[in-house]
Amino acid sequence: MKFCxxxxxxxxxxxxxxxxxxxxxxxxxxxxxxxxxxEMITLKAQKLGDWADQHRIISDVINNIWEQNNWxxxxxxxxxxxxxxxxxxxxxxxxxxLEAMMRAMKDRYRFDDRQTQQFQQQIYKEMWTMSLxxxxxxxxxxxxxxxxxxxxxxxxxxxxxxxxxxxxPLMNDLQLDVQRFATEFGEILNENQRSIYKRDRESLNRxxxxxxxxxxxxxxxxxxxxxxxxxxxxxxxxxxxxxLAQEAVDRLIGRSALPYQESTWRRYVRAFVxxxxxxxxxxxxxxxxxxxxxxxxDRYRTSKADEISKLNPGERVNHPVLEPIxxxxxxxxxxxxxxxxxxxxxxxLDRAPASRKPPGSRSRS
Length: 365
Fold this sequence. Notes:
Elements: H1 9-21, H2 30-47, H3 51-68, H4 74-87, H5 94-109, H6 113-150, H7 157-166, H8 168-186, H9 191-219, H10 241-253, H11 262-276, H12 280-303, H13 305-309, H14 313-316, H15 323-336, H16 342-351
Helix pairs in contact: 1-2, 1-6, 2-6, 3-4, 4-5, 4-9, 6-8, 7-9, 8-9, 10-11, 10-16, 11-12, 11-15, 12-15
């Protein structure tokens, strides 16, 4: 709990999954309902793609929020670094995330065996309490957030206002719950540990105060991208010419395209040629890049044929053995990007839907 308020949309997802996966709720219907929601959210989270890419987004979120609030004390830094380590682990690997958090706290406070056991019991008790109070609301908000990301759309102030209003009971109680938990945690510490605890609690209070204050603004529709540290996110920053043209290419190949498949690569090159209206020499340059990477991918697939053959289609989307091929697709896009001229880029921008252009970028007739 000392770092549960590290960011916003990723934290809602992580808290919601923690509640469902703890398996401690024993109220009739609660566990089954939460488990069903958790399975749905897990499937949608996996559709976001390689978790390493999502971790980069979440890292920017956490770092931006910390930096713009000047949370720079030693305790603030510990909270940020711990949150970043936990977010490296996919949310569906809940036990691994919990172990990472436990390990960080044990190392910081130098718990003995008795304290480790007591802290673990406190954490599970808190998950049980939160699952009963907040689980369905948190998970439904998280589901809508994921749906928005999967549609490749930015969050809006209207959406955030609705989520904030729905979670009002959570925010009204959360401060009391966190303070109660912090007090109970302090009771298991010795005198030396309490000096660390004092700094950590002050750090936690700063983050709680920030989110409680902002929550009131969000309910009134006054959410800003910076509030969630999303100013560097590709879906929320102002669209550049390259971004808009890239969106046109992505629309042509379809959002369901799988980056480890050669057919996706060939469709991408065709869509790139069409979007930028490349000439014959440029087409040949693009074809040469494609052939080079296809050869590399074939060579890699041959070397890993036994491992790849054992994967079902669902596993292939994010399995580590295919990560080198996914990186080759990223390389393909980067190498193609240098081919169009500035004139071709401008024409591609002019053909982009007006609603997707940045302010002031519409062509004058």
